[in-house]
Amino acid sequence: MSRELLEREPELEELRAAARQASAGHGRVVLLHGEAGIGKTSLASALQSEPPDGTRVLIGSCDAMSTPRTLGPLRDLAPSFGPRLGEALRAGDREEVFDALREELAASVTVLIVEDVHWADEATLDVLRFLARRIVDLPAVLVLTYRDELDRDHPLGRLLGDLGHGDHVDRIALRLLSADAVGALTAGSGLDTDRVYAMTAGNPYFVNELVASADEVHVPPTVVDAVTGRLRRLDAATQDHIEQLAVVPSAVDRDLLARLVPGSEGALRPAEESGLLAVSPEGVRFRHELTRRAVVDALPASRRIQLERRVLAELLATGVADPARLVHHAIAAGDADAVVEWAPRAARDAAASGAHRQAAAHFRVARKHTGRYEPAERADLLEESAIESHTIGAADDAVAAQSESIVLRRQLGDPLRLGASLRWLSRFQWFDGRRADAEAAAHEASAVLAEAGDRGLHAMALSNEAQLALLAHDTERAIELAGRAIALARETGDRECSRTR
């Protein structure tokens, strides 16, 4: 089994077993089905490359054309058969085609694979129905591959219904790859296996395209083209619905779905039958995250902005209390007012939950619009951003944000807030390798807070100075500053500060 054809041993053995039965005079029909990209063609090719002894494997394909070729698979196969079939096809003699094909399959053990039968023309379906009814008396296996995504009125559905009653019919449903198989396919690629598995859900085509691109962040153009091709075969209204849902990077719950797609239960049926969406009583989601992202990547910028604005408006209308979701759509929609309102809330929610990287990211978004905040609010936001950046080790960003905050604190004339902010700045500067600046800020913090008369904050500033002196190996000064800090802390009952050494 090749590296590209993992977890398909049982299915390949089923096909071989059917061929062995055919060689014994017991023909069979095999229905090989699964979603797009699941590996039907790869399995058929594997059988053809290593056919069972004494068996020929022939493959014909149906094409995704606006008007399918009449008997297209047979025209492809004609060179592999005797002259009678070719002559019958050229003459357009239906009965002669039937007889020539049956005669050809009776001559030697054959596995005849017709791929993508969901795109077959009516004449091809009639030929397949003719063969399926007679296959049991032929030394042949008729393998039909097709996608599961068939709408209720699809012509292939009637053929499958007819075949379902036969005891000479086998069904092989190809499943998605396991996480282990995805790990094997991504080995040595440098990609994050868990991320690839989450994006593809184990669809072999998607996995292989990501591995080929060596990039699990961006959707490969081949995937975008493949998804876009499937999308464009749907009616215009369904395309609009899919594009609208695609800009929501999560499952869409029932309330939001009802607002975005009125009459969604019926309106989304074509999208579900096409295999793009999975619909449940709780809402709707894309079958594959990579599919959703491919749809988004194919959108013109103006169209995406329009769709994002609608999602944002509907989320606000429903009273959604998740600031992070609102910020995501506000950024994509270019709605600065919403970003200004919700980014700080999202940051504070993340910080309170211990998600400091997310908090820092949300604060950075808010800082792009600092001119929209009042000076005091802006100073607080910058300081909170600096603290989160410091927490995740982004020392440069912490110093930059805190320095901006202190400029505002000086203008606002609040010595308590200025002193506390200077103490923070000194710590950030120390961790950024700026010892002289850190000591200067620490000294100013102590002086400002001593003047302001807040003994608790003054004790904290002295404690900070003591720590910096100790780190600079100035033990005598560290002891003197620590003693002063402890004395003030004991006066105020601040146990944390009184633990200073």
UniProtKB/TrEMBL annotation:
Q: Which Pfam families match?
A: AAA_16 (PF13191)
The UniProt record lists the Orc1-like AAA ATPase domain at: 5-135
SUPFAM superfamilies the record matches:
P-loop containing nucleoside triphosphate hydrolases (SSF52540), TPR-like (SSF48452)
Which Gene3D superfamilies would you find in this protein's record?
Answer: P-loop containing nucleotide triphosphate hydrolases (3.40.50.300), Tetratricopeptide repeat domain (1.25.40.10)
Q: Does the keyword ATP-binding apply?
A: yes
Classify the source by domain of life.
Bacteria
Coiled-coil spans in chain: none
Q: Which UniProt keywords apply?
A: ATP-binding, Nucleotide-binding
> InterPro entries, from UniProt?
AAA_16, P-loop_NTPase, TPR-like_helical_dom_sf
For the keyword ATP-binding, the answer is yes
User: In its UniProt entry, what is this protein called?
Assistant: Orc1-like AAA ATPase domain-containing protein
Species whose genome carries this gene: Agromyces neolithicus
